Structure formats: structure tokens, C-alpha cells
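Look over both lines before class:
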Amino acid sequence: MDIQCKQLLPHHTGLLCELACLYAAVFETKDFQMPSLSWLEKVLQDEKIVFIAALAENELAGGLTAYIVPSLYTESCGIYLYDLAVNPVWQRKGIGKKLLQELRSYGRSKGYFEIFLQAEAGDLHAIDFYRSTGGREEPAVQFSYKL
């Protein structure tokens, strides 16, 4: 099976739409509404947002969204991995690992110092995945504020 990962560029709005739908399905997002085309074009042009898609047999098999975060403590940036999802049909075939490897390669090429992320405490599949890929677990509590 040939899996190709590619970073989405400003002309990949169709693929970003597919990725948004994949996230909504995998994360069981209730009442998902696709953002406008102008919004998708805007985020694709933002150099602080990275979208990577995994394609298998010319079909979107998975993808990730990450944000580049400048640091006050070092003259470098970190990468916050916000979303990583694989279509259930393609799960357990190494696609998630390949996406993470692609993000790591991207970060190294830019001289960034780390990738960090959060996994919900009850999402044991995600926790096991990140443990199996060499992630170092750190206890934390997340707080969110609705605006």
C-alpha cells in the first residue's frame, strides 16, 4: 500500500474540505457546518498553521492540523498538534504514524524544538498511539473558556 503525505498549500481547498469532513466524522462532531470557502482559503495561507494529508489509493485516508507557536524561552518555535485523524477504513495501517513522522520531519527542517499535544484522558486509543510513537507523557489539566 502506497501512502503519500503532503502538506496542503493554498490551492488545496478541496482537500481541506475533505479533511474537515473527516475530522467531523472521526471526532463525532455534532452539528458540524463547513466553514466558508473564503475562511478555508485564509487558513491555508496562514504560515502558522500546517495541514498534512495522507493519501492512499488517491483517497484521503487521514490528516493532521498543527499550529506553530513561537517561544519566549528559546529562539525557536514549538508545534502544537491540534488534530490527527485517520479514516476508520484506513486505521491500523500505519497512516497515523506516517503523518506524525511527516510532521516531525517538517519541524526538524524548520529548526523547531518540539511537538506537543493533548489527548483526552478517556481516549485510550489515542493515548496508546502517542505512547507507541515515542511521545513523553506529562500530567496536565486543560482548562477551556468559551468566548
User: Anything to note?
Assistant: The chain has one domain: 3-132. The radius of gyration is 15 Å. The first strand starts at residue 3 and ends at 7. The CA atoms of residues 35 and 84 lie 19 Å apart.
